[in-house]
Queue: 2 jobs
Job 1
Amino acid sequence: DSIVAYASNFLGTPYQWGGNGPSTFDCSGFTCYVYAHFGVQLPRIASDQQNAGTDVSRDQLQPGDLVFFGSPARHVGIYVGNECYIHAPRTGDVVKISSLEDRSDYSGAIRVK
């Protein structure tokens, strides 16, 4: 998937709250930046992004779908496949790939395309 391939270019980029890229990102800044590259404008805040597409059930996730955590969403990432997602996690961390199974607060996903 081209979205995942592009997002992967930023693996290791430092997290910074309010970071819009490309040198630092926060979670929703990362998803905004990646999708903007493909001409898709997302809302800036994770909870608003959760309403910006079509709901997708967990068993129907495809690479490039946005996955959300918390209700209302307080974290967002991009599904990469194999129950994993790429995201900008928290202060002191970097853009990385993590397992959905490590998160008990998964709250849904959308497809924007």
Job 2
Amino acid sequence: MQRGPYEILTLLGEGGGGHVYRAWDPRLQREVALKVLRQRSGADPERVHRFIAEARAASALNHPNIVTVFDAAVDGDTPFIVSELIDGRTLREEIGRGP
């Protein structure tokens, strides 16, 4: 499956707003994280606006504890955000470990 130029490799997780995939960026020859807004949400212009605003806000930040946003686009009627891929435990796993 493709989203724009990105080849989706596998599902990493899902939440209320959408799905996050491990994907391949053929232009830069690297794996990335690709966050896709849920299909039913993609039809809501306000939801799409907030999703893209999230990408803009995150891309303006530069901190070692925040992933770098590489791209934000809409493929057909499906918005997505592309960011660096961080391997490791999920947030749920980290929270489960306690304070």
